[in-house]
What we know:
Structural class: mainly alpha
Strand content: under 5%
Distance between the termini: 47 Å
Low-confidence stretches: none
Radius of gyration: 23 Å
Number of strands: 0
Order of helices and strands: HHHH
Helix content: 55-70%
Shape: rod-shaped
Largest sheet: none
Mean pLDDT: 80
Amino acid sequence: MMEGNTQHRTQIYLPSSLYHQIKEMARVRNTSIAQIVRDALLRYTGSRVMTPHQEFARAKRAFLSLAGIGSGPKNLARRHDAYW
């Protein structure tokens, strides 16, 4: 989830009481135990998962900035002779 849609499988060991708490939370929320663990880890680390749209917008801004598009005076097209 953090790297686009790439996910890495992992295995963790939980005390029985914690496992049963998480299992009950997943049942009540109608979701998976894995999703409960992912949500908890995201809150714990302060991470934020970007949607594909947000990732595209970030990449677009980075490209435009790298290309120098969108920078410079706002009236550059009309008054280009004054700047060169």
